[in-house]
Amino acid sequence: MENFDDFFTETFETATLANNLVTLRGLRETATGPSSPESILQAIEESREHLTEHLPWIRDTDIFDIKKRIRSWILNEKFRQGGCWLIYKNPDGEISTDSTTPVAGAIMMDVNIRNHSATLSYWLRKGYTGQGIMTEAVKLISAFSFATLKLNRLEILVSVDNPKSAAVAKRCGFTEEGINRDFELINGKFVDHRRFSLLARDVYSCLPE
Ligand SMILES: CC(C)(COP(=O)(O)OP(=O)(O)OC[C@H]1O[C@@H](n2cnc3c(N)ncnc32)[C@H](O)[C@@H]1OP(=O)(O)O)[C@@H](O)C(=O)NCCC(=O)NCCS
Q1: Sheet strand arrangement including 175-186
Q2: Residue 96 and which of 133, 160, 194, 207 are 20 to 30 A apart at CA?
């Protein structure tokens, strides 16, 4: 595929994804207001209780760590290794263009460009769960990944103790492939993960000719 790398970076940097329920915008180092590093930290602090069980890095994060992580996601975009979107719930079903809309969560993508594949991870802020927000965000990212980034495979790895996250993968049409043993060290314990995948052909073979 000619100039795939340049196409990938350019597309990633400029993409805003939206449907009726949610808008996803790429993380920016210079963001102010509700998308600033300070506001992201506030969203995490409000949600620490339900996030730390599955995302161990949340436990000790602070503003320096958040800024470092944002920088690292921006570099990932530049080197075609991935990216991170902030998720906003659309006010009154309108696409969020309003810079006062609070961040509802985030969705991260680690890309293996050689294999045209990527792994997704995500979290939602307290008060934004139970509304289908992550399901819609993953569906948007999946469509963008296959149709625009021309990826072939998406993967979601879910701790065996995380049925809510497994339910997101299943609602989005991912297939369960098996168990990755001792996959992640979470809060001092090695935890098995369920591996889910969605392929471009899973999606396109369902579409009418
Ligand atoms: C994983 C996580 C994002 C899932 O959040 P969630 O709110 O369950 O997922 P969704 O936003 O897709 O919402 C689905 C829920 O909304 C309900 N819902 C309401 N309207 C809906 C709609 N239009 N579409 C789909 N679901 C809808 C569903 O029934 C479901 O509720 P239920 O679990 O009580 O059945 C959240 O639990 C989280 O942040 N966990 C901590 C971090 C984490 O584990 N990350 C994953 C690491 S892989």
Answers
A1: 16-18, 22-26, 82-89, 105-112, 117-124, 153-159, 189-199, 175-186
A2: 207
Please give the number of the atom of ligand 1 that sits closest to the Cα of 162: 44
Place of tokens 């339900």: 50
Beta carbon of 153 within 6 Å of any ligand 1 atom: no
Is pLDDT above 70 for 9?
A: no
What are the sequence ranges of the domains in the chain? 4-155
- CB of residue 127 inside a 6 A radius of ligand 1: no
pLDDT at 4 over 70: no
Residue environment code for 151-174, b if the CB has 16+ CB neighbours within 10 A, otherwise e: bebbbbbbbeebeebbebbbebeb
Q: Is 158 in the pocket of ligand 1 (CB under 6 A)?
A: yes
138 CB within 6 A, ligand 1:
no
How far apart, in whole angstroms, are the C-alpha atoms of residue 104 and residue 137? 11
Q: What is the pLDDT of residues 143-174, one digit of tens each?
A: 999 998 889 999 999 999 999 999 999 999 99
Would the pLDDT of 2 be above 80?
Answer: no
Instruction: Say if CB 173 and CB 156 are below 8 A apart.
Output: no
Task: For ligand 1, say whether the CB of 149 is within 6 Å of any of its atoms.
Answer: no
- Residues in CB range of 154: below 8 A, 6 or more apart: 117, 118, 119, 120, 141, 142, 145, 146, 174, 197, 198, 199
